[in-house]
What we know:
single chain, alpha+beta, 7-stranded antiparallel beta sheet
Amino acid sequence: MAKHGKKRSSSEGAEKVVCRNRRATHDYAIDDRYEAGLVLQGSEVKSLRGGKASLSGAFARFISGEVWLENCTIPEYEYANILNHAPTRRRKLLLNASEVNKLYIRVEERGFTLVPMAIYFKNGRAKLELGVGKGKREYDKRHSLKERDSDREMQRAMRRGD
């Protein structure tokens, strides 16, 4: 019996990471992660497909019951002429209403922060990984670095057979 429907290619469903916020895990203790869609203009999508974006200094916040990404830099697409976008404009994040409510409660009542972690393509659509966490103090950062170094030393010793 023949199968009907769309044939899946091997690359379909795969994620192509455009950019990561490397400082996020250093500066914040991330508890949960959410996947949010991005409302983008055509030239922004073209620029992202070219691998150009920066999440350094980016943050998410609530504005009138919706979650918005601010300070994320997506450079202008060089072939877009007059139809180009503003590189650091505010972009709306697409989340379920229940997710927005959960996030709002955690941010407003418990003092958590919404941290953009990565922008990637999944099934041809631009997605943002949004982390929920608290800011680390300076001594927490030092502790994390020491922990990571000791883990590396253990791994090296295990490989050497010590």
